[in-house]
Amino acid sequence: MKVKISNYPNRLICNIHSRHMEKKYGVLSYHNLTHEDHVFEAIDDMVQSVYDVFNWLWFDRRTQKVKVHIDRWDTWSMDHTLASIALPMLVQLKRTKHGAPCTDDEDVPESLRATSASPKENNWDTDNNHFKRWDWILDEMIWAFNQKCRDNWEDDYYEYREMGPEESKDLDSLFVYSLKLVWEDREGQKAHQERMTNGFKLFGKYYENLWD
Question: Cys-Cys link to 47, which of 14, 22, 25, 152 (CB 3.0-4.6 A)?
């Protein structure tokens, strides 16, 4: 597999006025502007008009370039192939994200639900668990894909040892290729698989919310 995706096309944008306002007032305030503020605004407009010519001639005509080449072996275990790509992307998304989407209480532990949060001051406010829920959901996705990248996670729930000469003659012994099963945790393996499946389910449910 070979994937090459270019950066999103940029435009020339003049920030003279916005930088002036932030430096002078600390915020972008458009109330009670002074003569100086209007001068910077006029300069910004003139420079931007020049920029817009270049944007029209070049930048607005550019598109993001995407090239994907799939080899035959990439689909032999497509779930593993995609996991190795999704995992580092999810890790980076959690590290660089600037917000969080609305999530359903049913997808998170009770302690992170909106019903367990402190009362909101206004109906339009987000509760104090809003961002915690998204972090938890992302962590579950990351964990699930990390486990999928492990080819031998099931080994955490089984233990084998080599059979002795006498044991290999015992037809009642449980053996696999001269190995005897001495310990297993089927309930643990089942819970592990169910958590992985839920992580993939969350990935599908919130797929369109995977943005920065």
Answer: 14
Q: DSSP letters of the chain?
A: -EEEEPPPP------HHHHHHHHHHSS---SS--HHHHHHHHHHHHHHHHHHHHHHHTGGG----EEEE--GGGGTTHHHHHHHHHHHHHHHHHHH--------GGGS-GGGSGGGSPPPSSTTSPPTTHHHHHHHHHHHHHHHHHHHH-TTGGGGGEEEEEPPHHHHT-TTS-EETTEEEEEE-HHHHHHHHHHHHHHHHHHHHTGGG---
Report percent pLDDT > 90 for the chain: 59
Residues present in the chain in total: 212
- What sign has the CA pseudo-torsion 190, 192, 196, 202? positive
CB 147 within 8 A of CB 153: yes
**With 90 as the cut, is the pLDDT of residue 26 above it?**
no
**Non-local CB neighbours of 52 within 8 Å, separated by 6+ positions:** 12
Structure tokens at 151: 């080819």
Does the global pTM surpass 0.90? no
The neighbouring-strand residues paired with 3 are 68
Report the alpha-carbon distance of residue 188 to residue 158 in Å, rounded. 10
Domain ranges of the chain: 1-69, 77-212
Under 8 Å between Cβ of 141 and 199: yes
Each residue's pLDDT tens digit, 141-162: 999 999 999 989 999 998 888 7
